[in-house]
Write a structure and sequence with these properties.
Helix content of chain B: 25-40%
CATH architecture of the largest domain in chain B: 3-Layer(aba) Sandwich
CATH class of the largest domain in chain B: Alpha Beta
Radius of gyration of chain B: 19 Å
Shape of chain B: globular
Radius of gyration of chain A: 22 Å
Order of helices and strands of chain A: HHEEHHHEEHHHHHHHH
Strand order of the largest sheet of chain B: 6-7-8-3-9-10
CATH class of chain A: Mainly Alpha
CATH superfamily of the largest domain in chain B: P-loop containing nucleotide triphosphate hydrolases
Strand content of chain A: 5-15%
Chains: A mainly alpha (335), B alpha/beta (253), C mainly alpha (400)
Number of strands of chain A: 4
Strand content of chain B: 15-25%
Distance between the termini of chain B: 39 Å
Number of strands of chain B: 10
Number of domains of chain A: 1
Structural class of chain A: mainly alpha
Oligomer: heterotrimer
Largest sheet of chain A: 2 strands, antiparallel
Number of helices of chain A: 13
CATH topology of the largest domain in chain B: Rossmann fold
CATH topology of chain A: ABC transporter involved in vitamin B12 uptake, BtuC
Strand order of the largest sheet of chain A: 1-2
Chain lengths: 335, 253, 400
Amino acid sequence: MDAILLQIFNGLDKGSAYALIALGLTLIFGTLGVVNFAHGALFMIGAFCSVTLQRLLTLSHETLDPTKLDFLGNPSKIKTPYIVEWFGADAGNTIIDWSVPLAILFAIPIMLAIGYVMERGLIKHFYKRPHADQILVTFGLAIVLQELVKHYYGANPIQTPAPDALSGVMQILPGVVYPAWRVVYFCFSLAIIGGVFAFLQFTTFGMVVRAGMADRETVGLLGIDIDRRFTLMFGIAASVAGLAGVMYGPINAPNYHMGMDFLVLSFVVVVVGGMGSLPGAVLAGFLLGILESFASMREIITLIPGINQIIIYLVAIVILLVRPRGLMGRKGVME
Amino acid sequence: MGILEVKDVSKRFGGLKALSDVNLSVAQNTCHAIIGPNGAGKSTLLNCLVGKLIPDTGSVMFDGQSVLGRSPHEINQMGISRVFQTPEIFGDLSVFENMMIPLFARRDGAYRMHAYESVASEKELVSRALQMLEDVNMADKRHMHAASMSRGDKRRLEMAMCLIQEPKLLLLDEPTAGMARADTNNTIDLLRQIKDSRDITIAIIEHDMHVVFSLADRITVLAQGTPLVEDVPERIKGHPKVKEAYLGETAHA
Amino acid sequence: MFGLEKKDLNLLIIVALLTMLAPFILNPFPTDSALAQFNAGYPDLMQRFVIYGIFAIGFNILFGLTGYLSFGHAAFLGVGSYSAVWMFKLLSMNVLPALVLSVIIAGAFSWLIGFISLRRTGIYFSILTLAFAQMSFALAYSVLTPITNGETGLQITLDDPRILGMSATADGSIPVTNIFGLEMRAATDLVIGPWSFTFSVGYYLCALVMLVAFYLSIRIFRSPFGMMLRAIKSNQTRMNYTGLNPKPYTLAAFVISGMYAGLAGGLLACMDPLAGAERMQWTASGEVVLMTILGGAGTLIGPVLGAGMIKYFENIFSKINEATLHSWFDVLPDPMENGLVWVLEHFVGAGWHLTLGVIFMLVVTFLPGGLVEGGQRIGRLFNRTKAAKDDESAATKPAE
């Protein structure tokens, strides 16, 4: 029983990431009608926002310590982060320790800006073009973003540790302990998902966007400037992906190709959930995450070797064939 | 016994009853018009004939065989060709190629992999395609991109694509919708010519009474999913039920 | 001749001349001149030109004609390579049976994937093919290790049976790939003054295979089958109501393009008998899409051009480094030189993929018809007056 619970929990953090990316993909697809292959890159950029913040916070000036010599006999260098100098050792080190959560604040404006530039600068021109063109141009953009990150940050993964207080394990149920940060990640993504749904459900803006998702032309006829709202929607979707990336850093050290890895799976998630269905995307994200984690259990792998590698694809193929619209897809969307 | 026999066909969309117990018989080598106010179920009926929709109940027999459950391409192979309200042609292909495809479909069936010999080497089909283009006055346009033609030309091309298959039954879905008067008259002339020159049965859905009365041998009036009357044009003209159906529509509009 | 119309025949002859004379054409600079780094006439690179040309020609039959965008074609390339290496391990080092098996296995595999993927169209189709390719990639790395040798990649060894050949040569080394005794790596150098040209058996085999592949693709383009494929792209509704079933046509196109990919994969293995899973990754699928689009999807010559361009620039760009850039812009004032070098170094060396991504975006955005369309536009600019007169011929045959 505990083993099963543990697998479910294991699946939740990956599932959260899938759900968040798939949510953004669906928002963009539903509102703008664009298939965004660069969405994984946004997730990756989010993760590198926290890498950047960590680097900014640890910017140091070097002093020589004549009391200690390194192996060549020169005085060894001591690095003191400016933050520590300005705020004192305690506060400074705490800020550095909490750089990943702090990066949330740092990432939101950046992701909104990137989303805005992407939509106004590129995606806008592809609304009327065939889906194949949209796929191709965003695929190109994904390569560009990925290569730029690789150029500046290198090809190796960069550790972004969780704050000390959250890096241990947590007793979630009697007898079940679990890494604290993964619990945090799950709660965080639930909060984001809840926030997005509440935003769409309870604000006038969200109402218009939902109406636009259902029938763009009619909403346009009502004299509502739907395009401007959709631009903002793209920014929000980019932020959701970015935040998912920021917080994912401590689980998997950010590297330049993490976006592509997640993108393929997230697309599969969207398709399984049903193109254009937000609840479908979230549901399928968690479902596939958990399924993947079950398939990674040793008992199952010995039974069917390699199943953990392909389970998501297999499920997607089966779903597409028996339920072509996905779990919660609407009729008439992308048929 | 007509070439097309529709028996007790009903079709529902959720709560809306689009067709209820439609019976229709189209006699061979006649032109049968189906008219009716908006929302009378004309298009639904047409879609049931070509395999796009499957009726909930009833049967549709064509040439002694049931069409129900067959896909559009199978029904076409049985000898039914359809002209759409907005012309459906191969826009990226040349006008000449648009004529060749139906010819291949008629000769080779739904699928045949001719991947080696060139299109141009099919001398007999080529000459038939050119002849047909000649007949519809489009020979000079044969190299044009079909998509770049005027709407009237596209419709003529679509009609020619259907005719070249020598169908037993030609279905026309509002062939003059959105046309100027002069174009409408041209289309009427073209259709009359087709009707007179070959053995063909035509079923036509039309709003324009001028077109209907110029062409039809028999007319069925459809209202709210049921056939109201069926008769020859002369008697339809003054029929009180028909007036009611149409006036009812204008009164509501 | 060859059952082709004059225009197509001319195209075939031009391509044949270019490929046969490639060792000269691609080595225009003397060996020890500064420009020798732009030479591309060595066998290894020329082989890649034509092999990826085959891959792109095949992909174009699917994407260019039917418009179905597959993101999984690298899987067939990989399968082709694996099959060929297995043939080298089990049968003999002769490339012929290896190529035959590559094509057959890739064809069967693509039939299976196509049969399922083609149940859906549009973006669903793209994602399904992507999912299948990623699945094959994951499997090749893990469960299928007995067949694929996992991360190391499949190689030929001294203890392979090779029932029709020999496990090891007389001097105890691994035998090399050959065609009826003629070794793939055999080459002769021709030195004329400061120039040096290399002619290798491997390249000429690949070039001949590509010419055959290109010839077949011309025939497919001009055939009723090719016309049907274009009709599918143009209007599936009309297709159905004309009595044609689009599905078997699309599946046939998918399998043909899968077989081309398998042939390309097999040739890669013939030139260098090893096969790795990374060949199946979706970035590799993206690359063939790019080649096809860059050259011009749906055109005959486009994919060949695209493949050549991408592979050439890949080679040249990755060789350039910061020092080379500095030496180029030496004449400029220092700040300008440094600025230029700073910008350009993003795009060269390891930054080649960045260049690739940028080209991708630019082509899709501004030149969806690829180089061929670009060429036509330039041509039209010059011929505007003439074109006005014989407008008719300019609008003919969209397949060019």
